[in-house]
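To: structure subgroup
Subject: Chain for Friday's discussion

All,

I'm putting the inputs and outputs inline so they're searchable in the archive.
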Amino acid sequence: MKIKPADSWFSKCVRHSAGACAKCGKADGQLHHHHIVPRDVRRIRWDKLNAVCLCYVCHKWIHNYPYESGPWVEKWMGKGAFELLMEKRNTYIKITKAEEKEIAKHYHDEYNRMVKENTFEFDSWQ
């Protein structure tokens, strides 16, 4: 799947806001941005709720063991957030190419703001 500007800026925001692997707590090394619901589900592809940062080992585990990792994701997110994400996943929303450009701009601006203000919080476009 092609990486688009909206993907790159969203991933930068997610990784900048993390600080450590959400599963094991490892803070050194490069963090990976993982989509909880696969990114081919465009309606939540750039939703902050659908993102988690993991180290390489934990990212590999979550992909290799989806049935075992599912309960961990639900516990990490909390039942309410997990249910909201599943509801969003099942809601039909079409993302146009023009909106995708707006999403890229939103996350570009959010990333620059986080760096400038030395903050780790960002607003989701949704």
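Points worth raising on Friday:
The helical segments are 5-18, 56-64, 66-77, 79-89, 97-117.
Residues 19-113 form one domain.

D.
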